[in-house]
Amino acid sequence: MINKISLSMAAAVAAIEDGSVIAIGGFGGAGQPEELIEALIDQGAKDLTIVSNNAGNGETGLAGLLKAGRVRKILCSFPRMSHSHVFESLYRAGKIELELVPQGNLAERLRAAGCGIGGFYTPTGYGTLLAEGKETKQIDGKNYVFELPIHVDYALINAEAGDRWGNLVYRKTARNFGPVMAMASKHTIASVARIYELGELDPEVVVTPGIFVKTLVLR
Amino acid sequence: MKENIRIEIARRVARDIPEGAYVNLGIGLPTLVANHLPRDKEIFLHSENGVLGRWQAAPVGEEDWDMINAGKEAIQIDPGSVFFHHADSFAMMRGGHIDICVLGAFQVSQSGDLANWHTGKADAIPGVGGAMDLAIGAKKVFVMMEHLDKTGVSKLVRECTYPLTGLRCVSRVYTELATFELADGQVKVVELADDVSAEYLQEVTALGLDFSAVQSR
């Protein structure tokens, strides 16, 4: 019998090594896997590269991970949110590396990794600072920038519900980056509010099939 | 090939699939493997037309023709199986999420090159389907095929003469005569079928075989 359910947040994140690339779901607070991030802080892995839309706010969650000095580099689209002072002070002090990625590119680069696509041409950012040094191509008279996939070791995401095979459904706009991060990651850890028996989730509405999920844990 | 021989090959393949594996079964001979997977182990099937989980053939009279496998046969899914669109289905292959795919073949070369979509003959109508995506995407590619073609020539070859489906992608070959493991340009015999001698197998195979790893049955 295959059972991907982990008995605790601590057990779910126990295997994460120093130096891992970790995608953390959420758009602002919606979909941010607070409990998994807290467990990761307690677990102690360091020298991490984080892929996330934002860089955390306040002092807990992603901001707490940053504050604990565990993050070497962050790839994100919008690090400046209200109360994102932890990131700001680390960045100004030169203690964290930032790769700023336009939000659509962040999503598509994760998706490319999940789909085994070696890169793609996108018009986003052409001629701007964020495309400097990147290969470009004109296709049918329009200019494009070549973007590479973002491969991820671990994804920490929040979903609403799942089953023991790892099938997931999400809640409202908390879905955001969850599905593409699950696809891009070698080891997806999903925190869920409810666990169902096999077959209780409608197979027509499952958003992330279990093939993309290694570990499931109840929050 | 006789039905009992086809079943014997399917059983050998099914035995090599571990619990929890995500497996894509190609059309034709590979489809048979589904009937021989142990029911007490949870092995996940993936079908390119957008279904993942566990299923069986639908009984005659109970077919729902919106619920089919890659071979366009009616199936009935078990609870926990899910549906998705075609691009996500091929993301699972190309993105390296499928552990094993089982395909048919015209030829397999010593280095693991696979030819299974086109005979290259002028009047042949080629069809590639999902074979190229599977060949490069699955972590392991198992081939099930007859050992000899219709003219009695070995389908295990030094170099494929038919157009290729994928380069250096095949890890195992199952024929009615034996099971082969392919690695580092070597073809190792891991199992001989009943009543097949090493001498006979080497005689009908168009490349040098390594018999050092043969398991006794």
UniProtKB/TrEMBL annotation, chain A:
Signal peptide: none
Reaction equations catalysed: 3-oxoadipate + succinyl-CoA = 3-oxoadipyl-CoA + succinate
Keywords linked to the UniProt accession: Transferase
GO molecular-function terms, A-Z: 3-oxoadipate CoA-transferase activity
Alphabetized Pfam families for the sequence: CoA_trans
Classification via SUPFAM superfamilies: NagB/RpiA/CoA transferase-like (SSF100950)
EC top class named in words: transferase
GO biological process: beta-ketoadipate pathway
Pathway membership, UniProt: Aromatic compound metabolism; beta-ketoadipate pathway; acetyl-CoA and succinyl-CoA from 3-oxoadipate: step 1/2
The protein's Enzyme Commission number: 2.8.3.6
SMART domains in UniProt: CoA_trans
Superkingdom of origin: Bacteria
Similarity comment: family membership: Belongs to the 3-oxoacid CoA-transferase subunit A family.
Name of the molecule in the record: 3-oxoadipate CoA-transferase
Organism field: Pseudomonas putida
Native organism taxonomy: Bacteria, Pseudomonadati, Pseudomonadota, Gammaproteobacteria, Pseudomonadales
